[in-house]
Amino acid sequence: MSTQIAPRPRASEAPRRRTSTRPTPTRPPQPAPFRWSQDPELAYRAAPLPTPTHYVTLPKESLPDPGPWAANLARAIVEVVTGVRQAPQLRRWMLPDLYGALACVHMSPCARGTRPVHVRTCPVDERTTEAAVIVSTVSRTFALALRLEEYHGRWITTALELA
């Protein structure tokens, strides 16, 4: 018995190489599942808000560092959305309309173990900061964009986008 051997490829016939090792997407990207802001033009306008007259603005030094604060808040928001944490725990740190909209959103549950992966803050003015946070869970990664404003010496979330 003899075994047939395939001929060697000629030098002019180079083996084909794949152009990419990444899998092709099977579905189009989904829009952000949650977006809320009081002002729809918020992303395009960064005008300073008038200072209310019923309280005195505290100095910037009394506010906590926005980076770690935004990371902890983003982690808590993801835990509320996935059902690990109860929504009333966030009531103090958000505007009432934002809290009401967030309390109604529920995604698929995921295991415990959420942790902030990356945080980037960008101060808009002395009373406002915007933060982008990536939060990782065991089964999924979330991206959050937060707008934090000073309110009575603490940060409060006035706009949120979760994807």
Total of helices: 2
* Sheet having the most strands: 5 strands, antiparallel
Residue fraction in strands: 25-35%
Please tally the β strands and state the result.
Answer: 5
Mean pLDDT over the residues = 78
- Distance linking N and C termini: 64 Å
Radius of gyration: 24 Å
Shape: elongated
Q: Which strand order do you get reading across the main beta sheet?
A: 1-5-4-3-2
Helix/sheet category: alpha+beta
Q: What is the N-to-C succession of helices and strands?
A: EHHEEEE
Helix share, percent: 10-25%
Low-confidence stretches: 43-47
Report on this model:
This protein is α+β, with helices and mostly antiparallel strands and 163 residues long. It is 15% helix and 27% strand. The chain is built from two helices and five strands, in the order E-H-H-E-E-E-E. It has helices at 66-81, 96-103, and strands at 34-37, 115-125, 128-136, 141-151, 154-162. A five-stranded antiparallel β-sheet has the order 1-5-4-3-2, covered by helices on one side. A hairpin with a 4-residue loop joins strand 3 (128-136) and strand 4. The radius of gyration is 24 Å and the shape is elongated. The model is unreliable at 43-47 (pLDDT under 50).
Gist?
The chain is 15% helix and 27% strand. The chain is elongated and about 90 Å long.
Secondary-structure blueprint:
Layout: E1 34-37, H1 66-81, H2 96-103, E2 115-125, E3 128-136, E4 141-151, E5 154-162
Antiparallel strand pairs: 1-5, 2-3, 3-4, 4-5
